[in-house]
Inverse folding.
């Protein structure tokens, strides 16, 4: 299957976007499909990746988060699985495997985080993320207590909810447009990287 909407050629996108895509390519060794798929609408691309970066790499906007990089990716992988988003489960599962240095954890949280080999703190985080993902209208004060008990601040809880909500948008865009994961994602973090 191919993308429902053709991806632009990298040479045809605005210079600022092209430079960012080339930076990602240099770091990853390939261009993740999401970067080109969203580049068909430059203003939306810029807004999407600005919010993505503010949530997933908060230090770039001068903010610290109580969530680790791995925990952020765990939220994305778990909630993307609940939303049946193939692209995001595969892509963010790969990043999760790399950050956590546990090849099994991404598959475990994607299928059933309650049985995953993760500590109770992360299970509480994912319980909350899943409630935001599936039943955000039911969130009440009682949902905050377990997170506070595990040391999450109110700002950390905002991060959990914002990451979940943002990737809910991403999941739906990827699914409706039939965005497919790059083949490279499937082996990332599963097999040792070749030394250069």
């Amino acid at each position: 299957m191919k993308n429902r909407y053709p991806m632009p050629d990298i040479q045809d996108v605005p210079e600022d976007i092209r430079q960012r895509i080339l930076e990602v390519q240099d770091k990853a060794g390939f261009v993740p499909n999401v970067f080109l798929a969203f580049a068909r609408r430059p203003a939306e691309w810029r807004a999407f990746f600005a919010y993505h970066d503010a949530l997933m790499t908060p230090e770039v906007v001068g903010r610290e988060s109580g969530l680790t990089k791995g925990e952020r990716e765990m939220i994305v992988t778990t909630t993307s699985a609940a939303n049946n988003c193939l692209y995001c489960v595969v892509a963010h599962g790969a990043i999760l495997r790399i950050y956590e240095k546990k090849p099994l954890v991404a598959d475990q949280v994607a299928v059933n985080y309650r049985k995953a080999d993760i500590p109770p703190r992360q299970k509480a985080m994912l319980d909350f993320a899943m409630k935001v993902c599936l039943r955000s209208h039911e969130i009440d004060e009682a949902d905050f207590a377990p997170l506070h008990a595990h040391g999450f601040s109110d700002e950390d809880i905002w991060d959990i909810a914002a990451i979940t909500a943002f990737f809910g948008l991403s999941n739906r865009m990827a699914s409706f447009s039939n965005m497919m994961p790059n083949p490279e994602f499937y082996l990332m973090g599963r097999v040792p990287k070749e030394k250069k």
Q: What stands out?
A: The chain has a mean pLDDT of 95. The chain is about 60% helix and 0% strand. The two ends are 33 Å apart (CA to CA). Residues 11 and 138 are 46 Å apart (CA to CA).
